Amino acid sequence: MSIDAASLRATTAAVRPPTRRKRSTAASIGLHATLVGASLIAVFPVFWVLVVSFKPDARAIERTPTLFADSTVDNYWNVLSGAKGAFLSWFGNSVLIAALTTVLGVLLAATTAYAASRFHFPGRRWLLLSFLVVQMFPFAVLIVPLYNILLALGLQGSALGLVLVYCSTAIPFCTYMLKGYFDGIPGEIDEAGRVDGLSPFGVFWRLILPLARPGLAVTAFYSFIVAWSEVAFASAFLSAEDGSKTLAVGLQVFVQQNRAEWGHLAAASVLVAVPAVLVFYLVQRFLVGGLTAGSVKS
């Protein structure tokens, strides 16, 4: 059977993917200018905090600010030496609370998500729905009931109580994200592990978790940020003593009703941001893959 040239061209045109229209020079310049302007707007506040951190408090908010005049590292020295607040104590408290929240939150979220992904049990759908409903409530609404619960358990004012509070807010989101990620891992891997004699937990620990590292990185980063930068729960549930505060709460000592030490506040803010940046750098190569994989299925 012969095919004429017109039919062949029509078939080829139907199969060929549509060509991408070339962007004009003016449109390209406008797009890049918009992106550069948006980037500068986003980066400028961070840059200015860095500049102010090297200024004396009296020069930090002057009407005609300068970039490098009167720059000094005294603010950093005063913050780190303890002359202005117990920064190192706050740092230790924040590291402890954030680390416990990350480890406990990822462990509980991963096991719950794996069970919801692989096992069909009564109430499974309602369990996943409850995770979404919990995220709809503002955190401020939860302060009073959580305070009463911690008070009844004898954990009010302790770091462990705050860790449990942070886990209660981080685990629902992490579970829902990891459940979508586990759904993308073929079930044949579980079957192969059971054939080799692994228990259900052995399959989860030795086979599934190594494959789920991008999803675990995303949930670990989210749990860390929840505990590292949160203020409301830390202010309500920790003791008012200066040595028991976290970094986010401790920064409030630099801005009070009768005085504001903007230079020291900026220096402390830069120091607080450094661990978060380091954690982000360690997990950033997993973030894109973990976020997209966890958002495809539910």
Write structural notes for this entry.
This protein is an all-alpha fold. Helices cover 70% and strands 0% of the residues. It contains 13 helices and no strands. Helix 3 crosses helix 13 and helix 4 runs antiparallel to helix 10. It is globular. The C terminus is likely disordered.
Quaternary structure type: single chain
**What is the number of E strands?**
0
Specify Rg, calculated over alpha carbons: 26 Å
Mean pLDDT: 82
Number of helical segments with 4 or more residues:
13
Percentage of residues in DSSP E strands = under 5%
Low-confidence stretches: 294-298
Residue share in helix: 55-70%
How can the largest sheet be summarized? none
Global structural class: mainly alpha
Order of secondary-structure elements: HHHHHHHHHHHHH
Shape: globular
Distance between the termini: 50 Å
Short description:
This protein is mostly helical. The chain contains 13 helices and no strands.
Topology, please?
Layout: H1 5-15, H2 25-52, H3 74-81, H4 87-118, H5 124-136, H6 143-153, H7 159-183, H8 188-195, H9 200-211, H10 213-229, H11 232-237, H12 247-250, H13 262-294
Helix pairs in contact: 3-13, 4-7, 4-10, 5-7, 7-10, 7-13, 8-9, 10-13
Keywords, separated by commas or semicolons:
mainly alpha, disordered C terminus, 298 residues, globular
